[in-house]
Amino acid sequence: MQKWADYRSILQEKGQQAKDQVKTVKLIGNMIWKSGPFLILALFLFMFFEGILPAFQLYASKQIIDGLSAVDGGASGQQSLHWAWMYAGSMVAFVILSSLKKWVVKILSERSMLSINLLLLQAWENVPGMKFFDQKKYRNRLEALREATGWLPAQIMTISTSFFTGLISLLSIIGLIANLSPLLAILLVASTIPYAIKQNRYAELDWEYEKDAAEERRRMNYARDLLLGRRAAKEVRLFGLGNFFREMYLVTFGKLYARFERLQNRFARDSALTGFFSGAVAGLGYLWIIYQIDAQAITPGDIALYLLAVFQLSKEAREVANDGADTWELWRMADDFRLFIEAEPDIKQAAQPQKSVAGSPMAIEFRDVYFRYEYADDADDEEEVEESEAEPEEYDGDDDSDLADMTYFEEAEEADSEPPETEEAAGREYVLQGVSFSISPGECVAIVGANGSGKTTLVKLLCRFYEQTSGQILIDGQEIGKLVIEDVRKRIAAVFQDLGRYGVTVEENIALASWEMGEQDKLRKTAALAGFDEVASGLPHAYETMLGPEWGGVDLSGGQWQKLAIARALYRDADFIIMDEPTASLDIRAEYELYNSFRELMKGKTVLLISHRFSTVKMANRILVLKNGRIVEEGTHSQLMELGGEYANMYRLQAESFEEDEGKVANG
Q1: What are the b/e assignments for 591-624, b being 16+ CB within 10 Å?
Q2: pLDDT at position 614
Q3: Rounded to whole angstroms, what are the CA distances from 506 to 498, 533, 537?
Q4: pTM recorded for the entire structure
Q5: CA 628 to chain centre
Q6: Alpha carbons 439 and 285: distance in angstroms, whole number
Q7: Best label site of 210, 220, 332, 564, fewest CB within 10 Å?
Q8: What angle in degrees, to the nearest 10, is found between the helix axes of 37-69 and 2-34?
Q9: Checking phi first, is residue 514 left (phi over 0); if not, alpha (psi -120 to 50) or beta?
Q10: Which residues have C-beta within 8 Å of that of residue 227, sequence separation ≥ 6?
Q11: What's 554's DSSP letter?
């Protein structure tokens, strides 16, 4: 019984795979069809005629030879001449059809590239949260797909048309051979089946290898880009890191190459064995035809026809097997695109969402909020990366695309909605543990805490990048999960620690926060408030200056980029502003200037301020102290200092460190 159950399970799995493949073919097929219906029809016509031409040429050769060898001479010779002209015409037709087919394929490939990228961008819009960007479980699959948008449509078109043209040619030649001996035609086709199976199997293994090797390739690219890029060039030169990263590249390549070599050795061995079997059967076919010559059962034209047909059939069968395996591999990649495109939204929109009305400072309330990431390593990664105080001073655009971290390919497991049973379990699993606080409209509240305490996670929940595991988050008294996601986000502006540095003009960098507004006076005003107007005035083309090295633009210092990000956040004129380490890259004077203009900057807005600098935190009306995912203290700066708890200890440590540094400077 268990054996039958296993068979049934395997059949169900295969059936599901077939259904998924049909979905993929339908999706990609519709995409290609929409790229040019008339071109598709013309392509099928070209493939059909190009496919039958080899069989026609073989048959024409038979007629020419039979006519030339006939005893009657004249009439048969005239017939041979007619067939010779048709043969010559077929060669011209073959060249024309091949050229037209290549032209259509190139046009459709370019149009399909646009279509598939639009599908991917639409899929990105359909997944409004951030967990797919943060999680790394499925990065290998996406890494293999990320660059494929540029070449996959062209490869699908090229290889698929080659496959179908070869298949038509193969079928037509089979028809010719079957006219002599159906059994010989069947044997010749059957002899290529093992070869085709092996080709398909190794195409599958090759694709799996590419996905599995993606992480190592990222490591290789990381080492290479560090050595060739600008971001770390100073330290690489100063500390002599070339050998270290070169060795990293070589060791990683060695691991990859060992696996690649084993796969290719198996492929070569099995291809040779199955190819030998196919060739042996074709050789037996030649011997059989020679036997028929001795028996005088066929004409000289038949001899030429069938000898060439057997050779052509064997060759076409292997080529079709190769193209079929390549086509199947490409469609497997397309299947991954389908899973990406059909990904379920990670943030659920309410069936009848409520509108969030903009135009007034936002009121925020957290009620006993618990949150944990779905995979254990995500919480660690998230806090390490986003709450790190380290900020590169310059940016040169060498970062890998964030698309490399998108993970759209499998539905996430349901998060446990129950709070942790014990404090110990909570400490292990939950980033936020029963967090409750409120921010009144127009109030500025600061959050302080060590790295990993949950500050950035809290911000992600407010921006609806994630959904809380349990508890409630209220915006103006309405549950955040019942509000339209886009409405909530339009009311929020933020200066994130990992702020955006866009390779566009200064003006565009600022206006991106509300690019549809295009208000020049407001843009200059917000830049001045953020302290960036003076920076812009010193640039070659002021606000029209291209920024970032990607397109040969001007690169800014870390502090200048931060001022620009503050200007961008202010330009949006949002009801709620999040400032995540807004002065981390600013010098003391710039921080002081920002402090003096802070009240003007935040007038009529609710503000959440996250900072490790207590001089910045003093700007807030109220301070929340977050520790291990819990709020342990709350009050003004004076109140918390009088309390003498966690905040006071952190403040004194920072003050002592500052005074010690000042003393060292003063003493030379």
Answers
A1: beebeeebeebbeebbbbbbbbbbebbbbbebbb
A2: 79
A3: 18, 10, 11
A4: 0.66
A5: 33
A6: 86
A7: 332
A8: 100
A9: beta
A10: 236, 242, 245, 246
A11: B
Extract long-range pairs of 220-229: CB within 8 Å, 24+ residues apart.
220/249, 220/252, 220/253, 220/256, 221/400, 222/400, 223/248, 223/249, 223/252, 224/249, 225/398, 225/400, 229/396, 229/398
Per-residue model confidence (pLDDT) at position 162 = 86
| Backbone torsion region of residue 131, taken as left when φ is above 0, otherwise alpha when ψ lies between -120 and 50, otherwise beta | alpha
Question: By C-alpha distance, which of 456, 343, 363, 350 is closest to 406?
Answer: 343
**Residues 452/455/456/461 CA torsion (nearest 10 deg):** 130
Contact present, 47 and 165 (Cβ < 8 Å): yes
| Cβ 359 vs Cβ 491: under 8 Å | no
> Tokens standing for 123?
């899929």
To which residue do tokens 């091949």 refer?
98
**Pick from 423, 569, 595, 604: which is nearest to 499 by CA?**
569
Q: CA separation (Å) from 591 to 184, 527, 562, 585, 597?
A: 87, 15, 11, 9, 10
As given in the structure block, the two tokens for residue 578 are 């999040």
Return the C-alpha torsion angle 6, 8, 14, 18, nearest 10.
-170
Segment holding 323, helix H or strand E: helix 300-341
In the chain, the N- to C-terminal Cα span, in Å, equals 86
The DSSP secondary-structure symbol of 483 reads B
Beta bridge partners of 616: none
The whole-angstrom separation of Cα 502 and Cα 485 is 24
Q: How far apart are the C-alpha atoms of 344 and 339, rounded to whole Å?
A: 9
**H helical segments located in 35-151:** 37-69, 74-126, 131-134, 139-146
d(CA 101, CA 510): 48
Are 582 and 495 in contact by the 8 Å Cβ rule? The answer is yes
Tens digit of each residue's pLDDT (9 = 90 or more) over 191-240: 777 877 777 777 777 767 777 777 788 788 888 887 887 767 767 776 77
CA–CA separation, 358 vs 639, rounded Å?
34
* Nearest-angstrom CA–CA distance, 451 and 6: 50
Residues forming a β-bridge with 439: 364
Is 510 in contact with 577 (CB distance < 8 Å)? no
User: In Å, what is the CA distance from 292 to each residue of 59, 64, 65, 187, 305?
Assistant: 18, 20, 17, 17, 13
Ramachandran quadrant class, 665 (left: phi over 0; alpha: psi -120 to 50; beta: rest): alpha
Q: Which domains does the chain have, with CATH numbers?
A: 2-341 (1.20.1560.10), 364-396+414-635 (3.40.50.300)
Ramachandran angles phi, psi of 59, nearest 5°? -65, -40
**H helices present in 356-411, as ranges:** 376-386
> Nearest 5°: CA angle at 347, between 344 and 353?
110
DSSP state of 501: -
Q: What are phi and psi of 156, to 5 degrees?
A: -60, -45
Distance (Å, rounded) from C-alpha 498 to C-alpha 488?
21
Residue with the bigger pLDDT between 467 and 424: it is 467
- Tell me what pLDDT residue 189 has: 77
How many other CB atoms are found less than 10 A from the CB of residue 185? Answer: 21
Mean pLDDT computed over every residue of the chain: 77
Burial class from Cβ neighbours inside 10 Å (0-12, 13-18, 19+) for residue 304 reads: middle
Residue whose C-alpha is closest to residue 544's, from 506, 512, 513, 504:
506
531 dihedral zone (left: phi>0; alpha: psi -120 to 50; beta): left
Cα–Cα dist 602/573, whole Å:
10
Distance CA(630)–CA(419), nearest Å, equals 13
